[in-house]
Amino acid sequence: MINNMGAELFDFVWVKAIVEFFGYLGWTLFAVGFILAVFETAIAYQNGQGDIKSTFLNILKGFIAPSLFTTLPIELYKFAVSLQTSLSVGIAGLSNNQGIGDLANSSIGLVNTITLSAIFTIFVLIALGYSVIKIFFSNLKRGGILLTQIAVGSLYMLSVPRGYTDGFIGWCKQIVALCLTTFLQSVFLIAGLMVFKDNLLLGIGLMMSANEIPRIADQFGLDTSTRGNMVGTIYATQSALNIVKGIATK
User: Rounded distance, CA 34 to CA 89, Å?
Assistant: First the structure.
């Protein structure tokens, strides 16, 4: 249900309006980047260094990017949520439970049926609560993170037509990381609840490992934060403004 809330965020009219605004902003920046790319190629061609073919390919990439950056990430995120829900329901069905809620209730109720020391019981409940609550809030805010990434992605439309695609490629990796984390964290949580019924510590360990998925994805270049890309975007925007000032002075 929490994952679906993140996906359903984009069904609200005002959220669609925000996405549409950044879509128009992306097209505007693409137009500016298109003009800059033409001027840069013309200046380089006068010095015998212009490459019209590469400029055309960069402009084509720049045209495709603003056409998809507001729609493809949302559809990919919804697909990840739908796939995760189907897989989680299937996993819960393996334990003869009617749904994920029944699996959670039976797993948590297992603590009351096992004779444990008071200290160990408190430890189990704290670890279980930490795992579930952290994943709960992570999934709850993921829709807003995707909306922020779409807003940041519009700024890259200025640099893609000019051939500077490193920042945009990093942004694409962030979208993939977000969808991958959405899928894996909830699946690991459900799998951990199933293992919890047979082995308390292993089940808690599996659920706690779900919180490490963003960090592991970061090691493979799939960073879910926007800090690094924002710095690159600001740098690209400043360089574009410097070029415009240089052309104006000439």
Answer: 48
pLDDT digits (tens, 9 = 90+) for 123-168: 777 877 787 788 888 878 888 888 989 998 888 998 888 888 888 8
Q: What is the rounded CA–CA span in Å between residue 178 and residue 153? A: 14
CA 165 vs CA 71, 77, 201, 224: distances in Å? 19, 23, 46, 18
Name the pTM for this structure: 0.75
Answer yes or no: are the C-beta atoms of 95 and 102 closer than 8 Å: no
Reported as a single tens digit per residue, the pLDDT across 28-62 is: 999 998 988 888 888 877 777 767 888 888 888 88
Cβ atoms of residues 42 and 50 within 8 Å: yes
Give the largest Cα separation in the chain, rounded: 84
